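Q: what does this look like with 2-acetamido-2-deoxy-beta-D-glucopyranose bound?
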Amino acid sequence: MDFYRILIQVTWTGVILAEMVTAAVAAQLAKRNTCQDRCGDVGIPYPFGTTKDCYLDEYFFINCTNSSNGRNPLPYLGNVFVKNISIHGQLDILMYIANDCYNKTGFQSSNRPSLRIPDNFTISNTLNKFVAVGCDTEAILTATRNSKLFYLGCVSTCESISDVIDGSCSGIGWCEVEIPKGLKKFSFGSNSFWNHTRVWSFNPCSSAFVVRKDLFNFSSEYLSSLRYNETVPMVLDWAIGNEPCEYAQTKSGYVCGGNSTCYDSDNGNGYRCRCNEGYDGNPYLHDGCQGIIAALLCTSWLYLVLERRKLIKLKEKYFQQNGGLILEQRLNKSQRGSHETVKIFTAEELKKATKKYDESRIIGRGGFGVVYKGFLSDNRIVAIKKSKTVDERQAEQFINEVVVLSQINHRHIVRLLGCCLETQVPLLVYEFVPKGTLFQYIHQHSSISTLPWEIRLRIATETAEALWYLHSAASPPIIHRDVKSSNILLDDDFTAKVSDFGTSRLVPQDEKLLATVVQGTLGYLDPEYLQTNQLTEKSDVYSFGVVLVELLTGKNVLSSIRPEEERSLAAHFLSFLKKHRLFEILENHIVAEGNEEQIKEFVEIATSCLEVKGEERPTMKEVAIRLDGLRKRKKHPWVNVQSHAVVTENLLAATCVASAEIAGYDSMGPVTLIEYGR
Ligand SMILES: *[C@@H]1O[C@H](CO)[C@@H](O)[C@H](O)[C@H]1NC(C)=O
Ligand SMILES: *[C@@H]1O[C@H](CO)[C@@H](O)[C@H](O)[C@H]1NC(C)=O
Ligand SMILES: *[C@@H]1O[C@H](CO)[C@@H](O)[C@H](O)[C@H]1NC(C)=O
Ligand SMILES: *[C@@H]1O[C@H](CO)[C@@H](O)[C@H](O)[C@H]1NC(C)=O
Ligand SMILES: *[C@@H]1O[C@H](CO)[C@@H](O)[C@H](O)[C@H]1NC(C)=O
Ligand SMILES: *[C@@H]1O[C@H](CO)[C@@H](O)[C@H](O)[C@H]1NC(C)=O
Ligand SMILES: *[C@@H]1O[C@H](CO)[C@@H](O)[C@H](O)[C@H]1NC(C)=O
Ligand SMILES: *[C@@H]1O[C@H](CO)[C@@H](O)[C@H](O)[C@H]1NC(C)=O
Ligand SMILES: *[C@@H]1O[C@H](CO)[C@@H](O)[C@H](O)[C@H]1NC(C)=O
Ligand SMILES: *[C@@H]1O[C@H](CO)[C@@H](O)[C@H](O)[C@H]1NC(C)=O
């Protein structure tokens, strides 16, 4: 089935299940399904209700009427607007401000707010305070406490607005009083001593209100701006009945439901209910408390399952995107008759092998990606290459290469052991080659003598054999496309192993030429390929020629020190040859160790590989055979026998041949070259 369809289906299943779990808990807020459990934005839990059969008694009736604009219904408790109802015994309301206002001639208007449904609600003593604002002001709150009348109040005066400091000094411009416990049935008002005559210009009203402590800071602006029809937030405590649990529990009206506990209200009379630990819901309903742990377990289990599935699906997606199915088919086919096949590693296996891709395991980095050293569980040491992104269209080609490379078993080509397709970018697993790259030995090791002439010749020969094999023995032929000294690895005994087929291309059998986007490394790039975009085996031959020159001279392939037209080592080398100064460009101890004839021919081979026209270059087969012949030829120690002057002379002779070729005088080429080359 299509991956996305599965994912969407799984996600929707999750969403629906999660909603069902939430709903199972939330549905217990109202008394029964037919009861309205919301009014506008406010949840209405039992014992509150909007209709007769939904509230506990009429004192808990919420009048859910349409607002004046007729759209959003608003909940009212008696005459006050309800902002929030908490199942834990609090009620957020908006309460009116009391005002006593004057105009120039005298008294103008006053009001005295009160809560008309008083009995089951107490002013929260912890969250509110009583505040008066004015400069000619006395404010009184009247309430019942233990069924007796109770008064509290404060006085505030000031002479001018400059006496008043924002937020400070109760008594100047404003005053406040803490609320004691147990105040019910309250109303409050404010009065003036001198009809505001002395302060009227900046303070025409005396104001008073009960307000949430955390939502009010005094500001001198209030002296002129508070109006009688404004409201401020305050908190009421609610409880059931007027008896503590001890008595209530024995009586018929006791409301706490199953798996809940009764506790006494700490502000006035009455009791409250609370769900036992591990339960959540509405404790005032018969079976309102639900095992929340079960709900939690269910949701978290569901979450885990979904995440796991997502991960598996993602891995599968990458596997398919990276061509895993094609690979499986190909491997199934090629498995017959072949013992050694590429293994498909799991992402987990390779993560373990590289210590979660630890920095310390990095053995190489480049444009291609990163190479890690890895230890497999069977104690094999491997090199794991994490490539850059492979896009979906390239997947099949990539797989093709993996399959072909997995079947190649050549001494001088790094063996591909397997790959992993479950990650976003495919991971390739190669045999580990301990001594690093030829590049390091030529350019980075302090002692260049670590590579004697004989070994250089051997590395050249082995590399040529590997490329010949790729071009001819493998079917379809493979063009390496990025032959360079840093892609030639050295084994313990300096055996060469060609590596990095990241850019390699398989040449379709019926096409000799392959048009591609030019890829490769500057300094090694075939100039003809650069011009025509036509990739042939001869492009590898050119790059190999550059490697031969590197082996001869030990110089950098690109150098900004050299004159512009000789930046590339190939041009630099050919220019020296042309000027008959080959001797100057050779590395010193090659001259010391090497055999005149060998070096002469090595130079010839390199030069022929660097021909501008691809068709004039020898094939890898010809190059390999010549190099092999060279190795087998008897050595004639050079320095010991001949004097320096003779050496130079001989080399100059070789140079003549080479430069004649460069100039295009093919007919003048030496016989040996023709014999080997064509
Ligand atoms: C609810 O409030 C509206 C508007 O204030 C009022 O007209 C109506 O009578 C109230 N309903 C009850 C049952 O008190
Ligand atoms: C509130 O408004 C809705 C839609 O505007 C209407 O259907 C409903 O009857 C109104 N309710 C009251 C109590 O006015
Ligand atoms: C309502 O009160 C509950 C409990 O005190 C609180 O968690 C919730 O945030 C409040 N909701 C609003 C809109 O104030
Ligand atoms: C002051 O208020 C009283 C009562 O509202 C009104 O009769 C009177 O005209 C007002 N005077 C002025 C100057 O506004
Ligand atoms: C305040 O105004 C009332 C009438 O509005 C008046 O009887 C009273 O004397 C005035 N008091 C002062 C101190 O002016
Ligand atoms: C009141 O002032 C205090 C301290 O300056 C501040 O932390 C708080 O946020 C203020 N409250 C409001 C509602 O402005
Ligand atoms: C308060 O009353 C004034 C006029 O007295 C009016 O302009 C204002 O809109 C009222 N505010 C509210 C919130 O009703
Ligand atoms: C609310 O208060 C009234 C009056 O005191 C009382 O009769 C009634 O039982 C109370 N209701 C609840 C649910 O506590
Ligand atoms: C209390 O919870 C248990 C387990 O969650 C359940 O079996 C039992 O029915 C509940 N009791 C009531 C009265 O809901
Ligand atoms: C490959 O072979 C295995 C068993 O031999 C089989 O389970 C798998 O489905 C095959 N894969 C393909 C893509 O044919």
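Residues 438-658 form a domain with the Transferase(Phosphotransferase); domain 1 fold (CATH 1.10.510.10). The chain has three domains: 90-238, 323-431, 438-658.
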